[in-house]
Amino acid sequence: MTGMLQGRVALVTGGRGGIGRAICARFLHEGATVYAADLSDHGSMEAGAGDAGRFIRMDVTSEAEIRAAMETVAGDSGRLDILVNAAGIELEHTIEHTSLDDWNRIFAINVTGTFLAAKHALPLLRKASAGGSTASIINFGSYDGFIADPGLAAYCATKGAVHALTRAMACDHGPEGIRVNAICPGYVDTPMLRGFFSGAGSGAGGGTLGDVLDKVREVHPTRSCGTPEDVANLVNWLASDEARYASGQLWVLDGGLTAQVQQMKF
Length: 266
What we know:
Elements: E1 9-13, H1 18-29, E2 33-38, E3 54-57, H2 63-77, E4 82-85, H3 100-129, E5 135-140, H4 153-173, E6 178-185, H5 191-198, H6 209-219, H7 228-239, E7 250-253
Parallel strand pairs: 1-2, 1-4, 2-3, 4-5, 5-6, 6-7
Helix pairs in contact: 1-7, 2-3, 3-4
């Protein structure tokens, strides 16, 4: 039985992070050739955390490094079928306590990095779509691009920008056979989430990590947080031909969290 992505070529930015690594592993399982682009080979995970594609050193804030990564893919594979823009950071401050340098840095990674990776992937994506199947760009927004967690003002702003950019790219490049979507996760158990709850921001509020994660699960209708594999499942579908009619959409994956009215507290 062949995989859903047999013979496809994929590049995943942030490919050595929690979600990125799970996406790379799923793509490999589905038969794709996978390039994991990140700042280091182990990323936010333990070294040797499992097979997750060929590592390419790439800083998404560097246009030169992005060009070099695309040249590597072009030299090895000649085309690119799937680009996943999963690289991102979080900044735990209100705007009053956000420096201009920090503001510019989070936009450089979360928004400009998405723009640059897509911009320089387009020639390779066009080659793939010319072969008869649609190419796919999958960006990473967040449920924080629709609503807001306290203390994450700059992060929320970047994700709103990614949402708008995704729609615009889908309109511009759909006629070229390139689909563009964004996944908007809620709480996913990753090193970033655990760092938020362990950090000085708005997360834990003094509670232990285990207690806070239990409380987070309890407020979800599904009574669970997401896993990187949950996200990878949706990414895999959006990358495949089964999703050929899906483009320009913001796919919220949050266990029903944003579907419910927040209960009054007496």
